[in-house]
Fold Alanine-rich protein SCI7.12c.
Amino acid sequence: MDSSVYVFVEDLRGEGVERVLDRISAYGVNGITVGAVHHASRDVTPHGLSRLTIRHDGAHFVPPPDLFAGLRLSPVPGYLNAFDGLREACAKRSMKLHGWTVFLRNATLGTEHPDVTVRDCFGDRGSLTDLCPAHPDVREYAVALARAVARLGADSVVAESLHFRPLKPQRSFVPLGPMDTYLFGLCFCDYCMRRATDLGVNAEVARDECARIVGGVLDGDPPAQGEVTRAALTAYAGPDVVAYARARSETVTTLVSEVASAVADEGSKLVFIDATGAVKGYRDGLPTPGLAAHDAWQLGVDLVALGDLVPAFGVLAYARDAARVADDVGAYLRSVGKDREVRAVLRPGHPDSDSTDRLVAKARGAKAAGALAVDFYAYGLVPHPVLDRIPAALSEAG
């Protein structure tokens, strides 16, 4: 069974490429998925040079000048030598190298160019981290970025945040319900409005309805209860809002298609990851009831359409329960097609896995449900004794 471990460039810089690869290869893993382009964060890193690591928005390679010449957006410089010799070091150990790429989550670019970020129903650009996939400059940037990572010699380009993102305020003392939060997070920039209008949606009515509903809650109306479903959203916000939400899938599908084609032209392949599994279970490993594949539409992800365009998918199986992991993998395969490669991304420790047996059960369940690979997230974020659970999981998964 194919496998990899997610690795940050700070891990390689801190512990050394040879040491990290030797440790990972000893687990019996087939490859590493390295953060070629990542977003800013502040992480507890138990065996890093610093126990609290500050990551900045950055592309950790020298961007090919021909790809970004004339483009308005270009990669934020990170550790430009991070991939030097890495391909050769992997090949020496018969390991694959995958380029993990965070596409549209970038506060640096958003702050420098706020007009390329999402705009809510009130006309505010309050999410400068989130680049809008409908904006032409963002789309050009994403395609060029994908080509650049593929040219690093990556066996695959692993795409994160290549879709709309949910609203996540750092503080809110207003009790927004799930549907209110969803409506508040919809983008109504000129490009999103135009695309929806071209598809026959009354975008202005949708925007006004969202502003009316969310504005009412902000003024003290009771929030909506229950999970976000199309039926519930229709009853709560009306058919124009649901139609607008559906139209977002055209934006994402066409962008992913362009990126997948660009990656293929460079001799690599795209592994598409949508964030639904993380939205549901990242905090505690107890995902909300709906399966990730069934709720991916909320981020503009049409898995059935993408199944015809993308060769491989990563499922963020962030759950404590092995049965839930199997259900999520199975639902993805039914959506994207049985002939597509599905990779289950598991967290070997807290908060999903409290023992080797639990991790083993989840790897076994993922394989039984049809996953062709199991990947482990992430090397620098968990203690070495937790990473030592990986060989048993791979052995049982076969």
